Amino acid sequence: MPQLGLLPRKAWAALLSQILWSPYTACTRAVSSHSQVAEAVLTSQLNPNQEKSDFIIKTPKGTRDLSPQQMVVREKILGMVVSCFKRHGAKGLDTPAFELKELLTEKYGEDSVLIYDLKDQGGELLSLRYDLTVPFARYLAMNKVKKMKRYHIGKVWRRESPTIAQGRYREFYQCDFDIAGQFDPMIPDAECLKIMCEILSGLQLGDFLIKVNDRRILDGMFAVCGVPESKFRAICSSLDKLDKMSWKDVRHEMVTKKSLAPEVADRIGDYVQRHGGVSLVEQLFQDSRLSQNKQVLEGLRDLKLLFEYLTLFGIAEKISFDLSLARGLDYYTGVIYEAVFLQTPNQAGEESLRMGSVAAGGRYDGLVGMFDPKGHRVPCVGLSIGVERIFSIVEQRMKVFGEKVRTTETQVFVATPQKNFLQERLKLIAELWDAGIKAELLYKNNPKLLTQLHYCENMGIPLVVIIGEQEMKEGIIKLRSVASKEEVTIKREHLVAEIQKRLSDS
């Protein structure tokens, strides 16, 4: 909220006269004084006739503008992600940016405090969506959809402390792929992991690893270690911080903040520091404590089957069974996974980035049933690509290596070396537009030819068509390559075909 001292004198006088009108008014209006001050500040800022207050122009905390150069990179990344989703048969879906508040509550565990609640509008209590998964589950239940393979690209909002350098924002995009429906075990789950591998490999940002675990194994491990069932989700939330904190610090949080017995925390520590492949799955089958728990055995059997499918997909070497992986969200019920880029020696001038996970997901078989009046379940599994963190890595590397980005897709520029040729340029460019060719011209009646050619070089436009008095008389057009500066003469009626041929060959 703006400082009270920044209110213009007239605004303060009007506000004080309302508040101090009588003792009764002062009491009854005290509750609304905060909103009155805020409204007065807003009015003073928007009213040009009042004195200007000190006003900082900035984006809200945890958000940012994207320049044309950044948008080119972002659209390229998003295009690659969507292409992969479509290759695997997904349909597009969109949902509102806000949902009924009651639909979002108690779905995210301790992270529920990060939900942005909105002011009551028309009798509905609303909140900005926290992710794309819960709205998808609501959509399935509301429309009684039993099977669907969908992708969704959209913004979500989280009221957390942002770390811009690490790609952590309050407003950001999520790229989700989900498979809903009753199918044979682990086939959809394996495909989700295959998709993650395809996308991360295609980005060519370095080697990566996908950690895999199962919430049933976690819950069973908590049970055999002596964690009270009422503390399962709270301890799971602490465990989820192991990618940012050491085991010593996580243990300290479990014991001091969540009142877990020290010996119980130590038993958990014996397990969560293990990781490996299918051989670790076999070892845990033989564990005297874990093998007595039904949930653990179910999870291990599914993981063993999952590794068989991952081997057939040729990606098993990218997957690590990691007992420390928790995924703190409450709605996960089975297999969970999270992808991280492996730390590699920095190239010249490149700073080290602790990006955390760049993709994650898992199975959530009970979420749709929470929204269905009869509790009908629709098993689901999905993944989300952390496009903001990926974009931060790409952006930093472009800065280090001085890579330039072309911000437009203009293919042809219409130019003239002579005065009073605006009408001919307009007729010519309309012909190019109508043929589907991306074209530009300068919005000047009599531009200099050198200025027009410099514009093409600066914007990376590959071709220039030049029309002048001589060309008009002879019914021809000059076509110039900006890079090579070579010019050819073409009959006016053949211009479109020649441009299309050159563009298809390039």
UniProtKB/TrEMBL annotation:
GO cellular component, one term: cytosol
InterPro entries assigned: aa-tRNA-synth_II, aa-tRNA-synth_II/BPL/LPL, Anticodon-bd, Anticodon-bd_dom_sf, His-tRNA-ligase, HisRS-like_core, HisRS/HisZ, HisRS_anticodon
GO molecular function, one term: histidine-tRNA ligase activity
Keywords, alphabetical: Aminoacyl-tRNA synthetase, ATP-binding, Ligase, Nucleotide-binding, Protein biosynthesis, Signal
GO biological process, one term: histidyl-tRNA aminoacylation
Source organism superkingdom: Eukaryota
Record carries keyword tRNA-binding: no
CDD domains, per the entry: HisRS-like_core, HisRS_anticodon
Residue positions binding L-histidine: 131-133, 158, 174, 178, 327, 331-332
Catalytic reactions of this protein: tRNA(His) + L-histidine + ATP = L-histidyl-tRNA(His) + AMP + diphosphate + H(+)
Pfam families recorded: HGTP_anticodon, tRNA-synt_His
Enzyme class (EC, first level): ligase
Signal peptide limits: 1-27
Aminoacyl-transfer RNA synthetases class-II family profile domain residues: 62-417
Family under the similarity heading: Belongs to the class-II aminoacyl-tRNA synthetase family.
Protein name: histidine--tRNA ligase
Source organism of this protein record: Loxodonta africana
Gene name of the record: HARS2
